[in-house]
Design a protein that fits this description.
With about 450 residues, the protein is an alpha+beta fold. The protein contains 9 helices and 15 strands.
Length: about 450
C-alpha cells in the first residue's frame, strides 16, 4: 500500500467531503430554484396581461385595440388574436409561432428555432345587452425564457459562488488544521528517530498543545521510553551481575586447580581441593539454574498446572526440609490453618521455600522465625517473620530487584534472585508479595494467593 502523509490524507478527505457537500448543496438549490423560477415565470406572464381587456373593445362586430396597449414590456411580447387565432395586432418574435393553436388558461412551453418560449393565451370576455358573456378576442403573451429575470435565478447563481467559496475556504482550513495536527506528530517522530540514532533513552517527548489524543500518544511514548530505559538499565546491571557472580566461582576453581597442580602432594590436601572445587561448581550451577528459571518465567515457557491443594501441606513440607538443612539452630514456629487454593504446586513450593530460606539466611543464630498461614478475605495469606538484621527504607525499594543485595553481609550468601523469582511466581498466580521491615528488628514477608484464579 502506498504511504502518504497524515496532512495530505486529512486535507484530501476534508476537501473531498466538503466538495461533495457543496456539489450536493448546489444540485439541491439548482433543482428547487429551477422549479421556483418556472413557477415565477408563469406567474409573471399571467400577471402581465390580466388588465389588457380594458384596451380591447368590440364595436359593430369589429375588434378595436387602444393605443394604450403595450405590446412589449420587460421581455414579454403581446399580440391580439381573434377567436380563430388570427393575428389582429402586434408582431410575433418568430413567424412560426403564428400557427400555434389557441389554448387559453394554460402556460405552454414551446421550442421554436432553438429558442424556448413561454406562451399564455388570455381570453377577452365582454357582455352583451342581454347580459350574456362571450369571448371577443385573445391576447397572446410570449416570452423568451432566457430573457426573463427572477430572484430565484440570482439565488441559484449565488449558490454556485457560495459552493466554490466553501470549497476554497475548506481547502485553506484543511491545510491549516492538518498542519496544526501534523506538527506535534512530526515532533514525536523526530524525537523518536533522534532517540534511535543517538541511542539516548533519557530524552522525552514534550507536548503542551490542545489535542488530547496527541497528548495521550506523547505520554504513551514517554511511558514506553521509561520502561525501555529501565529495562536496558536492568539488562546492563543484570549482565554485570551475572558476569560477576560467575567469575567469582570460576576464578576460585581456576586458582585451586593451579595450586593443586603445583603444590599438592598428598591425598588429604587433594581431597580438600576437590571439595572446594565441588562447592564452587555447585554454586555456579545454582546461579545458572536460578537464571534459567527466572528467564523461563519471564518468557512464559514454563508449563503451569493449576490444581486445588491445601497450602498447609506445602508449607509443612518446605519447613521440614529447611529444618534439616539449617545450621544456625533456628526455631521455625508454625501456626498453620487448613487453606485450599488453586495453585501450581511446584511453583508455589519454590516461592515459599525462597521466602523461608531468606528468613533463615538473615536471622541470627539460635533465633526464631514465625510462619503463619491463614485465610483472609477470600485469599490465603502466608506470613514469614524473622528477627534478624532488618532493612532500611531504601533497601526495601529494591528488595525484589534481580541480583540486589542490601549490603556486603548479604553478599556472602545467595545471589539476589530468590525474591525476584518469588515475585514473578506470585504474579503468575494473581497474588502479591509485600514486605515490612525495620533495621535491627527483622523483616516480615506477606504472600497472598487468591483461593480461585
Amino acid at each position: 500500500m502506498k504511504k502518504m502523509s497524515i496532512a495530505r490524507y486529512i486535507s484530501m478527505h476534508f476537501i473531498g467531503i466538503t466538495f461533495a457537500a457543496a456539489v450536493l448543496m448546489a444540485l439541491f438549490i439548482t433543482y428547487f430554484s429551477n422549479v421556483a423560477i418556472e413557477s415565477d415565470f408563469k406567474k409573471q406572464i399571467r400577471k402581465e396581461s390580466r388588465y389588457d381587456y380594458i384596451n380591447i373593445k368590440e364595436k359593430k362586430g369589429e375588434i378595436r385595440v387602444s393605443d394604450k396597449l403595450v405590446y412589449e414590456d420587460d421581455g414579454i411580447i403581446k399580440v391580439v388574436l381573434d377567436t380563430e387565432g388570427n393575428l389582429i395586432e402586434g408582431t410575433y418574435p418568430d413567424e412560426r409561432l403564428e400557427y400555434l393553436k389557441l389554448k387559453p388558461k394554460i402556460v405552454r412551453e414551446i421550442e421554436c428555432g432553438g429558442v424556448k418560449y413561454y406562451i399564455y393565451d388570455r381570453s377577452i370576455i365582454k357582455g352583451d345587452e342581454n347580459g350574456n358573456s362571450r369571448v371577443i378576442a385573445y391576447i397572446r403573451s410570449m416570452v423568451n425564457r432566457g430573457n426573463l429575470s427572477s430572484g430565484y435565478r440570482t439565488l441559484k447563481y449565488a449558490s454556485y459562488i457560495c459552493a466554490a467559496a466553501i470549497v476554497l475556504i475548506a481547502t485553506i482550513l484543511a491545510s491549516v488544521f492538518s498542519r496544526r495536527i501534523v506538527v506535534p506528530l512530526r515532533q514525536i517522530c523526530d524525537t523518536s528517530e533522534k532517540i534511535g540514532l543517538e541511542k539516548d533513552l533519557s530524552k522525552r517527548i514534550e507536548y503542551d498543545g490542545m489535542f488530547r489524543e496527541i497528548e495521550i500518544l506523547a505520554q504513551a511514548n514517554n511511558r514506553m521510553l521509561d520502561r525501555l530505559e529501565e529495562m536496558f538499565e536492568k539488562q546492563k546491571q543484570f549482565s554485570s551481575d551475572v558476569t560477576h557472580e560467575l567469575r567469582t566461582p570460576v576464578s576460585v576453581i581456576m586458582a585451586q586447580c593451579q595450586y593443586a597442580r603445583k603444590h599438592i602432594n598428598n591425598k588429604e590436601e587433594f581431597d580438600e581441593a576437590i571439595s572446594l572445587i565441588e562447592r564452587q561448581v555447585k554454586k555456579t550451577n545454582d546461579i545458572i539454574s536460578q537464571i534459567l528459571q527466572l528467564s523461563r518465567l519471564d518468557q512464559d515457557r514454563i508449563r503451569i498446572d493449576f490444581e486445588y491443594v491445601d497450602v498447609k501441606d506445602i508449607v509443612e513440607e518446605v519447613c521440614d526440609n529447611e529444618k534439616f538443612h539449617d545450621e544456625k539452630n533456628i526455631d521455625l514456629r508454625l501456626s498453620l490453618e487448613n487453606a485450599e487454593a488453586r495453585v501450581d504446586v511446584g511453583l508455589i513450593m519454590a516461592a515459599i521455600r525462597n521466602v523461608i530460606n531468606n528468613a533463615l539466611k538473615y536471622s541470627y543464630e539460635n533465633s526464631v522465625v514465625d510462619v503463619v498461614l491463614k485465610k483472609k478475605d477470600g485469599a490465603v495469606e502466608l506470613t514469614v517473620r524473622d528477627y534478624g538484621r532488618g532493612m532500611s527504607e531504601e533497601e526495601k525499594k529494591h528488595i525484589f530487584d534481580r541480583f540486589y543485595r542490601a549490603d556486603k553481609a548479604r553478599n556472602s550468601e545467595g545471589f539476589g534472585l530468590g525474591l525476584s523469582i518469588t515475585a514473578r511466581i506470585m504474579e503468575i498466580h494473581s497474588g502479591t508479595i509485600t514486605v515490612e521491615s525495620e533495621e535491627k528488628k527483622g523483616s516480615t514477608f506477606y504472600l497472598t494467593i487468591p483461593e480461585r484464579i
